[in-house]
UniProtKB/TrEMBL annotation:
Organism: Ruminiclostridium cellobioparum subsp. termitidis CT1112
GO cellular component, as recorded: cytosol; protein-DNA complex
Name recorded for this polypeptide: Stage 0 sporulation protein A homolog
Keyword Aminoacyl-tRNA synthetase listed: no
InterPro entries: CheY-like_superfamily, OmpR/PhoB-type_DNA-bd, Sig_transdc_resp-reg_C-effctor, Sig_transdc_resp-reg_receiver, WalR-like, WH-like_DNA-bd_sf
List of residues that carry 4-aspartylphosphate: 55
GO molecular function: phosphorelay response regulator activity; transcription cis-regulatory region binding
Annotated DNA-binding residue span(s): 130-229
Residues of the signal peptide: none
The organism's place on the tree of life at top rank: Bacteria
Length: 231
C-alpha cells in the first residue's frame, strides 16, 4: 500500500488517537493526528489528507462544523466517529457530508477495514460507457471525477459522485434504494437504505436549480429515484 494515502485522525481522547494511529500505520498509511477542531482544520490545510477520521464530540469546534467547513473546499472522504447510535443522528452526519460512520466503542481492526472500503469506493468508479456525460448545463468528466454546472465545479463527496454517475449512465431508469447501494456504492457498503435519501437530498442541493422542485433527480413514490433526461 502506498504511503501517499494520508489519513488524518481527529479525536480528543489521546488513547484512541494513539491506538488508531498505530493500527493504520501498521497497515501502511501515513497518519496525522489532531486532538481538537482547530488542530484538525490546520492539519487538513497542511497535509491534504486522502481520508479523514473525525470524532463528532470535540472540545472547541464540533465535528459537524468541521465537516461543513471541509465540504466547502474538498470532497475528501470523511468517516465520522460517534457514540450516538440513534439513526437520525447518523443521517444528520451523512447529510452534512460524511461518507461513512463508526459507532464508539469500535474495533480498531474494523476501523482499518472501513477505511480501506471507503478509499476503494472513492477511487474506483463503475466502468463508464463514455468518459464525459452531459446533462444540459451539467458536464461530468469521469476521467477527472469532475462535475461542472454552468462551467463551475461542483464539490461532490465520493458517494454522491458514484450515485450521480450511476444514475447518469441509466437516464430515466427507476432505481430502488437497494439497487443504488449495490450498483453505486458496492457490496461492502454497510449503511442502511435511508442513507440513499440523504445523498439524493445533498445532490439536489448541489445540482438542481430548485432543490424543492427537482428537474433531474426525481422521486418515484413507493419505489425510489430516477434521473430524468429528455430524449
Amino acid at each position: 500500500m502506498s504511503l501517499q494515502k494520508k489519513i488524518l485522525v481527529v479525536d480528543d481522547e489521546q488513547k484512541i488517537v494513539d491506538v488508531v494511529k498505530s493500527y493504520l500505520e501498521h497497515s501502511g498509511y501515513e497518519v496525522y493526528t489532531a486532538l481538537n477542531g482547530n488542530q484538525a482544520l490546520a492539519a487538513f490545510e497542511k497535509t491534504e489528507p486522502t481520508l479523514i477520521i473525525l470524532d463528532l464530540m470535540l472540545p472547541d469546534i464540533s465535528g459537524e462544523e468541521i465537516c461543513k467547513n471541509i465540504r466547502k473546499k474538498s470532497g475528501v472522504p470523511i468517516i465520522m466517529l460517534t457514540a450516538r447510535a440513534d439513526e437520525e443522528d447518523i443521517l444528520k452526519g451523512l447529510e452534512i457530508g460524511a461518507d461513512d460512520y463508526i459507532l464508539k466503542p469500535f474495533s480498531p481492526r474494523q476501523l482499518v477495514a472501513r477505511v480501506a472500503a471507503v478509499l476503494r469506493r472513492a477511487h474506483e468508479s463503475p466502468a463508464p460507457v463514455v468518459n464525459v456525460i452531459e446533462l444540459e448545463d451539467i458536464v461530468v468528466d469521469d476521467m477527472k471525477h469532475e462535475v461542472k454546472k454552468k462551467e463551475e465545479i461542483i464539490n461532490l463527496t465520493p458517494n454522491e459522485y458514484k450515485i450521480f454517475f450511476t444514475m447518469l449512465k441509466y437516464p430515466n431508469k427507476t432505481f430502488t434504494r437497494e439497487e443504488l447501494i449495490t450498483m453505486a456504492l458496492g457490496d461492502d457498503f454497510e449503511g442502511f437504505d435511508r442513507t440513499v435519501d440523504t445523498h439524493i437530498k445533498n445532490l439536489r442541493q448541489k445540482i438542481e436549480d430548485d432543490p424543492r422542485d427537482p428537474r433531474y433527480l426525481q422521486t418515484v413514490h413507493g419505489i425510489g429515484y430516477r434521473l430524468f433526461r429528455e430524449d
